[in-house]
Task: inverse folding
């Protein structure tokens, strides 16, 4: 046939791969192993183009590694717990489980249509007891190892709906449903001791040389190591001390106040007998719990009337304020304010008329300059007694030395990283396997009783956690004393589910979370691919979980993801009608220089090219495209137009170009197809392409691989029929196979190739054929080497002479003068005599 027909072909090969168990990973294989993984999707409804791009990249790599002779693990699963399912339950009255499982079925079918080389036998969904039951076991392992604890901590509270809100449910400080201003409330919650691993997680970043620098930097900043001084101010009333933490001990003579957090014990004690203090603290509790919200909130202060004495000058007193920007869970929950050199302190001091003093300057001579805004950089100490003239780091070290010598403080390391709060007051998550007993406290559910399964009969007609309202589920007997007790009704943060799914993929025993030997055979993941939106939390939590398992002796792997790649987004044009509503690109047409709405004829404004999103109506549904162009054209387009880390703009031109390329390759493979007669050096070209495509795929530079394949295709099209040409076609098909696997299989079969092309070894190249037939020509002036040229072998004397005289360095030496004589030795040298 003269056309490749994806509609007939795609499903045929997909079934064949499935039937042959082609992409099943064999843990017992003697081949070297390669684990390729894309971040598993949240089953939100349908696959979008972003998924297609992500999974195509991983698929190309997986198929390439397989052809290279690796035993490849390339699995797929579903990050299936989370809020959207509960929102759907509230809005559409469907059970979160039914909604989720239906979405999974749809999306699985969509992925299958794209022909991904996945080991579907290892598919998992985190919402099934078969997965989350093992997660409960791991939670208990960590609990027993002291890596899990419970403490009181703040949550977002919606005062109208009377429910706890997840951070994502707080929009501009208000509850997403009620619109009420969110408050902070204290609740007992479960935490994982990730801070125990802060140093390891930071140091481990140094070993991740196959991660993007920007992601490592984001993790580094998130962990946030600061070195500084912790010391005590004595209260002037003699009633104890206030301990503070500073990263700028050099500014100690610039202190103008001490500020404590609204949650600080001194603040709480004060609130107990002063209503104005209590009221102030309550005011500070308004607004959400995110760090960003606390950072940007207006600075609020309350003068306690207390005073402390300066450690380096007992006659110097500083006022103590309660300030909303001081976090209780960082450092000591108290600080000394230096308005001259800290932006928050400057804002605070300006508002409350506290003194602002310069203690750092560019040089000693600038000591008298006024400070008009916080100068946070380094310099030399001024107005600081014995520190005067010392550079910032030396001055800081000097204060730490004196504090330690005199015993009023010590040098410390602080991390910004907080312990991981994993409690969620939600239904659709992994139940935390704990039972609360009046007498025994928090008791782990006995292992034999795992999994603790979510009840099916729950209602979503009122806000709050359905598990709390369920009449029977939480009522159990204490496993330790037998008296009536209560199940924990909090469920785990879904980031816990995604912190170990890649381990479960390695082996799926029924009686434990994973098989250690098999996990160690596959891990670490060789190449992990996903969105940069997961650069911080997901990756950090997965790294922590892996290290925690290592600490308790369950897995001897340090880092879960050896290579990380973060791909760009898929974007598309946007359009808006006169009333500001969005129109899909299919609803508009060009009219001269303008755009109009096809249906109404009204003018339309073309907007920016933006990430595909439902709200902007610029989504292209992969299924429609696969129907029309076939899987390979979509896959090819996803790889071809942009470097993979950049955004890819969807366009009809692009997908049609990809579809045309598929047909071009198809035609090449047809018997007797060539009517061309060029006698090109196809062999050399072919070996170069094999090398270039391999190198590009190793570096995940898919667009470069595509460009090389276009060139080879054109070269073959021009070549006259020959054995070289026939061999080139077969090799081309192998090179194209990871990207356009259906086409490659069909054409391979057509050319009489044996077996599946997916099972063929990756073509080898001959290094000797890679070197261009180029020579290096020495360019001399008066017999001295001045420059070199690269030229094709056999270039004429005249051409060589012209090139040499045109060389920049030679032209400079000649300075316009005519050379006396030019001696040319072809393929070797040009000597210019002046
Ligand atoms: C005096 C000072 C002078 C400070 C100066 C900064 C600049 P990083 O670098 O993020 O670790 N701080 C201490 N505890 C705090 C808390 N619980 N909540 C909010 N801020 C707190 O920040 C350390 C600095 O943040 C500390 O150094 C302290 O202010 C403040 F020119 O002390 B500094
Ligand atoms: Zn008990």
Result:
């Amino acid at each position: 046939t003269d056309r490749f027909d994806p509609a007939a072909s795609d499903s045929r090969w997909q079934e064949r791969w499935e039937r042959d168990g082609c992409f099943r990973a064999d843990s017992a294989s003697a081949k070297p192993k390669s684990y390729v993984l894309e971040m598993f999707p949240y089953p939100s409804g349908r696959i979008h183009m972003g998924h297609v791009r992500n999974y195509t990249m991983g698929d190309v790599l997986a198929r390439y590694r397989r052809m290279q002779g690796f035993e490849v693990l390339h699995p797929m699963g579903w990050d299936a717990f989370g809020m959207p399912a509960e929102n759907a339950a509230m809005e559409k009255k469907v059970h979160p489980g039914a909604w989720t499982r239906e979405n999974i079925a749809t999306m699985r079918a969509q992925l299958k249509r794209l022909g991904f080389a996945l080991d579907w036998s290892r598919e998992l969904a985190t919402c099934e007891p078969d997965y989350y039951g093992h997660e409960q076991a791991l939670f208990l392992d960590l609990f027993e190892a002291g890596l899990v604890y419970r403490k009181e901590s703040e949550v977002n509270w919606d005062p109208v709906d009377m429910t706890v809100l997840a951070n994502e449910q707080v929009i501009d400080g208000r509850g997403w449903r009620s619109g009420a201003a969110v408050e902070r409330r204290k609740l007992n919650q479960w935490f994982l001791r990730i801070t125990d691993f802060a140093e390891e997680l930071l140091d481990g970043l140094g070993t991740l040389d196959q991660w993007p620098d920007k992601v490592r930097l984001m993790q580094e900043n998130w962990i946030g190591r600061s070195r500084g001084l912790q010391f005590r101010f004595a209260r002037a009333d003699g009633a104890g001390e206030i301990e503070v933490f500073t990263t700028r001990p050099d500014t100690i003579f610039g202190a103008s106040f001490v500020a404590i957090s609204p949650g600080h014990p001194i603040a709480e004690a004060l609130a107990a007998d002063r209503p104005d203090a209590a009221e102030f603290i309550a005011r500070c509790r308004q607004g959400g719990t995110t760090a960003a919200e606390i950072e940007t909130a207006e600075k609020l202060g309350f003068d306690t009337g207390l005073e402390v004495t300066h450690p380096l000058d007992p006659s110097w007193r500083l006022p103590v304020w309660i300030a909303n920007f001081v976090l209780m869970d960082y450092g000591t929950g108290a600080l000394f304010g230096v308005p001259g050199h800290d932006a928050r302190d400057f804002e605070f001091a300006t508002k409350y008329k506290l003194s602002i003093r310069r203690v750092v300057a560019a040089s000693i001579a600038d000591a008298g300059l006024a400070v008009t805004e916080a100068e946070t950089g380094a310099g030399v100490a001024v107005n600081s007694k014995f520190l005067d003239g010392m550079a910032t780091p030396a001055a800081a070290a000097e204060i730490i030395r004196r504090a330690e010598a005199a015993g009023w403080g010590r040098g410390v390391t602080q991390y910004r990283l907080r312990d991981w709060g994993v409690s969620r007051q939600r239904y659709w998550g992994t139940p935390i396997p704990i039972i609360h007993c009046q007498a025994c406290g928090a008791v782990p559910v006995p292992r034999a009783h795992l999994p603790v399964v979510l009840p099916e009969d729950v209602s979503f007609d009122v806000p709050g956690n359905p598990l709390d309202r369920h009449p029977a589920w939480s009522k159990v007997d204490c496993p330790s004393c037998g008296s009536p007790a209560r199940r924990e009704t909090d469920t785990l943060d879904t980031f816990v589910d995604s912190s170990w799914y890649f381990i479960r993929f390695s082996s799926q025993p029924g009686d434990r979370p994973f098989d250690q030997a098999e996990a160690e055979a596959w891990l670490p993941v060789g190449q992990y691919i996903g969105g940069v939106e997961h650069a911080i939390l997901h990756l950090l939590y997965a790294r922590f979980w892996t290290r925690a398992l290592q600490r308790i002796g369950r897995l001897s792997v340090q880092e879960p993801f050896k290579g990380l790649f973060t791909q760009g987004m898929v974007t598309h044009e946007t359009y808006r009608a006169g009333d500001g509503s969005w129109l899909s690109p299919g609803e508009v047409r060009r009219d001269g220089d303008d755009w109009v709405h096809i249906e109404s004829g009204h003018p339309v404004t073309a907007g920016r090219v933006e990430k595909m999103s439902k709200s902007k109506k610029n989504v292209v549904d992969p299924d429609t495209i696969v129907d029309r162009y076939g899987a390979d054209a979509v896959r090819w387009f996803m790889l071809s137009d942009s470097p993979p880390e950049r955004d890819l703009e969807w366009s009809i031109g692009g997908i049609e170009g990809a579809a045309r390329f598929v047909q071009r390759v198809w035609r090449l493979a047809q018997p007797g197809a060539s009517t061309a007669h060029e006698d090109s050096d196809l062999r050399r070209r072919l070996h170069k392409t094999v090398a270039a495509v391999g190198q590009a795929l190793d570096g995940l530079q898919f667009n470069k691989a595509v460009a090389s394949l276009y060139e080879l295709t054109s070269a073959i099209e021009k070549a006259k029929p020959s054995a070289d040409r026939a061999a080139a076609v077969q090799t081309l098909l192998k090179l194209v196979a990871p990207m356009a696997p259906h086409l490659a299989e069909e054409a391979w079969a057509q050319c009489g190739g044996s077996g599946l092309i997916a099972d063929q070894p990756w073509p080898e190249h001959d290094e000797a054929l890679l070197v261009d037939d180029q020579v290096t020509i020495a360019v001399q002036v008066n017999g001295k080497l001045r420059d070199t040229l690269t030229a094709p072998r056999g270039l004429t004397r005249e051409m060589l002479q012209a090139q040499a005289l045109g060389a920049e360095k030679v032209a400079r030496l000649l300075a316009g003068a005519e050379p006396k004589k030019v001696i040319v030795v072809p393929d070797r040298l040009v000597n210019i005599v002046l």
